[in-house]
Design brief:
Elements lengths: L7 H16 L4 H8 L3 H13 L13 H11 L3 E5 L8 H15 L5 E4 L3 H9 L8 E5 L13 H12 L3 E3 L10 H12 L2 H10 L4 E8 L7 H7 L4 H6 L4 E3 L2 E3 L9 H7 L7 H9 L4 E5 L6 H9 L5 E5 H9 L1
Parallel strand pairs: 1-9, 2-3, 2-5, 3-4, 5-8, 8-9
Antiparallel strand pairs: 5-6, 6-7
Helix pairs in contact: 1-3, 2-3, 4-15, 5-6, 6-7, 14-15
Length: 329
Amino acid sequence: MKIISHRSDDLRQMVQCLELYYRHGRPQKDIARTLGVSAATVSRLLKRAFDEGLVRVELDLPRTQDLENGLVQKYGLRDAVVVATGGRGDIKEELGVAAAAYFEKVAAHGMSVGLSCGFTLYHTIRALRERRFRDLSLYPLSGESTLKLVDIFANTLVGMMAAKYRPHVTAFALPVQHLVSLAEIERARRRLLRDADVRRIFDAARTVDVALVGIGVIAEQTPGFCSLAEAYGVSVKRLTQLGVVGEINYQPYDADGRIVDHRELRALSRRLLSVDGEGLRSLSRDSDRYVITVAGGREKIEAVRGALRGRFMNVLVTDADCATALMRG
């Protein structure tokens, strides 16, 4: 509930403007005549209401059925969602809204849900409507091994999603430790998996009913995988030289969807616990499970194409520009 401190007459006038403009579709000049104020006052009140959060805009962008069907047939997907772009460069929020709507369509009581990380998934969680599920279980698909906040972590998104669905939801986390060398990582991995609770959470994350996953692009000044790679001494230039075109759940892969298991990247991709590329493929092959990947924008075309070729998903949520390019390639 909004807590507002406007004078009662100001608030009353603002609510009248909102009712007439949004619910009755009256033009601002007409509203001004009805209320006995200037058109400029009506415009100011509507803007003020929007700025102060009294108005919430929900986008319901049209989908492109031909592109969706084409992606399903070309890449062997279970389903695809393609939203119109209108030439915009950054459409993460629109993709998040579409992915949230798809998740709400398939979600059911008693399901287990896994989350990777990233800004597009952040928008997905934000767009979810509050709802009560019975016995919903939420799992991160990866832990982390950095002391710096380089991305929106899976553990963070699990907490956000749990807040949407409480109280009848159980949320879990995977351990966070700062380790650099592969030897340290392998020792910590064995130690952690000897812990019965950690092992149970990790095994459950690899068998979730629904996985929501983002795709990372390989580019300079990109938070997430590329920033973490820098911490492990691997530059974006070096990633490109090794043939990496994208990453999914911090697993680097090439243009053909093969995980790039180069010795320079093993400390990065093996750090602690995460559902790896083969784990995502296994989930995607199961007709009873959904691996919903949310990614779009022209800058991610090659990364998304590689992920499709790698069959890391069985549902893709993307935009029309990206989908069109994928159909050509």
